[in-house]
Structures are given as structure tokens and as C-alpha cells.
Amino acid sequence: MSTEQQNTYNQSLETMYQKGVKNMYDNGIEHVPVKYILPAAERPNANAANSVPEVNLELPVIDLAELQGPNRSQVLESLAYACQNFGFFQLVNHGISEEVTSNMVDVGKRFFEMPFAEREKYMSADMSSPVRYGTSFNQTNDGVFCWRDFLKLVCHPLPDVLPLWPTSPLDFRQLGVTYAKETRSLFMMVVEAILESLGLKTDTDKKTEKYEDVDEVVGIKNEIENGSQLMVVNCYPACPQPDLTLGMPPHSDYGFLTLLLQDDVKGLQIQHRNKWVTVQPIPGSFVVNVGDHLEIFSNGRYKSVLHRVLVNSTKHRISVASLHSLPFTSTVRPSPKLITHTNPRLYKDTNFADFVAYLKTCDSKKKNFLESRKIEQTQ
Ligand SMILES: O=C(O)CCC(=O)C(=O)O
């Protein structure tokens, strides 16, 4: 092949990769292209001793209905335990109906089943675009691509962004809006419990008790209420050689909390005691995880844990992540109540601009953003 032919060929491959993995799958791809092959040490089965069979993982289960009853204090203890030791828990009896969750997964699936020409309308290289269809983790910077396509939707404030959301499938907006509103309310309920589990009382009537933290707590709650919500519909098509690649590389989530809805195909793994363990889907539940903001706010008490996604050779997988963060203009810092002589401040102030600047330079998010916010301890 002449150099010119080689360049044209490379260009056409690059165009194909930018269109995403669902498009490659639909065109009958039989081997994972080199662009998706991870170095041996980063593949799913690298260091097999560091991954344990799925059955070994018992992610704590939090029953939200119990939180409203006489067992609230025990549930708060379990919540604190989960956030400290796993950074993750499964949420059941959360009050969002099966109809709303299954409709969301279904309409997400139907979005990715539409012809590429229809999905392509939402492609954008602009990271701040309110609606963005794309592939891999960060397709502008990723050296090795991962086996995922996604649709990202800014959800707040809804009236501003809704006119930009996809118009097809025809019921996408209606089902997506219901889902976004219900997950936002659920998020607020979980946050309330999390603040209480950190020893920060949240009831507004505590004001009358001259509760000393109340201003701080009301402040953080207001910020959280006005915070951003981003919904990401992830599509992981079946992959001909799943051992060579990942659906998503190890990363932690930037925001305060993530509520993840997954279909019945497993794939999510979290890092626990230096091993990768698989989260078994519990039908109808949410997987909830601590994000970087909450780790910083809790001054390191609650952990924003690395997670990744495996793909498999036979089944497509759909997940819908609802990522909740403080407003883009807020500064995130440890709660003064959680800084003590024995537990000094562990993190620098941080904001969204720091994160965007970081994203522009990194190959994949990994844990480094949070690491970069840590204050070096002198002893
Ligand atoms: O698909 C999953 O199970 C995880 C998705 C995820 O980690 C994310 O959207 O950040």
C-alpha cells in the first residue's frame, strides 16, 4: 500500500471508530479492532488473582422504606458502613415504580436501535453540550477506545434543556422526563439520610433547637437542591473478544452521588479491598455510589471508589446513570464539622473549572482527579 492509500485507510478506520461500537456491531464486526485492545496489564482478566467470582460480593442493601420507619437509626448506620467500606450500595424499596424504571431502560435501548443517521444528529465534540451522543470514555483524548456508546442529557433546569433532547423515539422525552424527575427526588431523600449519617442533622425544625450545624447543613442542602443532574444512557453491545477490552475503564464519579439503573445483564465491577468484584444486578434496584464531591465534603470518611464495566460476547447491556453534583459554580470543600484535630482537612477547595481543565489533559479519568485534590499530610 502506498503512503497515501495507507493514510486514506487509516482515516476511514478513524471515521468508523468515531461512529461508535453499536454501528460496528450492526455491521457485523468479528474481531476487536486494535484501537480497542488494552495493554495486557489493563485487560479484564489481568492479574486474575485480583478478581473474585461474582458470588463473593455482597454489596450492602439499603431499604429506603425502612428509613422512614422505627429502624431509621439502624439503617443510617448501615448506610454509613456502606459508604465508608464500599463506596457503593444497592437501594431497594425506593418508591420509583417498576413501570418508570423499565420504561427508561426500554426507551434507552430503542434509542440505540435507531439507525446511525438518527443517533448521529446528537453527536457533539463539545463536552458542555446539553445533549451529547458519543462513544468510548472521552473520544477526543482516549488512546485506546472502550466498548461503549452513550447519550448524555443535562436534566436541570429541565425547561431550558428539554427542547434540545432527542425527539425520537417519539416517547423518549416523556419517559426520560418522568425518570429524571423521580430520580432527582429520590436523590434528595438519599442525601438527607447521608448527611444525617455523617452526624449533620438536616431537619429545618432543628433551627428552633439552635442546632449549631444548621446553617452549614441548610447551606449544603440548598446547594445540592440547585445542583446539576446529568443522565447518561450507556449502551454496551455484545463484543466478539470481551477479554481484550472494557466497556468503561476504571474511574470514579465526579459528582456527589450517582444512581445507576442497570438491566439484567451484569457488567459493573467495583474495586473492593484491591480486587475487582462484580455487582450482581438486583431487579428494580438502584446501585448508588459516592462521588468525588461527597468524598471531599465528608473529608475522606465516605469513599468515591473506582469502578469499571466488563462487556460480554453474547448480550447487549443498557445502563442509565443519573449523576448528581453541586452547581457548576460551587466550590466543594470538606465540611468544617468533619475536620478535627485528629482528622485534619484532607482536600483542597475544588470546582468544576478545575475538573474540566483536568479532563482536557487526561487520557482517561481514573482516580487521578480526586488524588490531585488531596492535601499532602506532613506526618
Ligand atoms: O454501566 C455501568 O454499570 C456503570 C456506568 C458508569 O460507571 C458511569 O456511567 O459512570
From TrEMBL:
InterPro entries: DIOX_N (IPR026992), IPNS-like_FE2OG_OXY (IPR044861), IPNS-like_sf (IPR027443), Oxoglu/Fe-dep_dioxygenase_dom (IPR005123), Plant_2OG-oxidoreductases (IPR050295). GO terms for biological process: coumarin biosynthetic process; response to molecule of fungal origin. The keyword Iron applies. GO terms for molecular function: 2-oxoglutarate-dependent dioxygenase activity; metal ion binding. One of its GO terms (cellular component) is nucleus. Residues 226-326 form the Fe2OG dioxygenase domain. It comes from the Eukaryota. Transmembrane segments: none annotated. Keywords: Cytoplasm, Iron, Metal-binding, Nucleus, Oxidoreductase. Involved in the regulation of shoot development and salicylic acid (SA) homeostasis. Belongs to the iron/ascorbate-dependent oxidoreductase family. This is Fe2OG dioxygenase domain-containing protein.
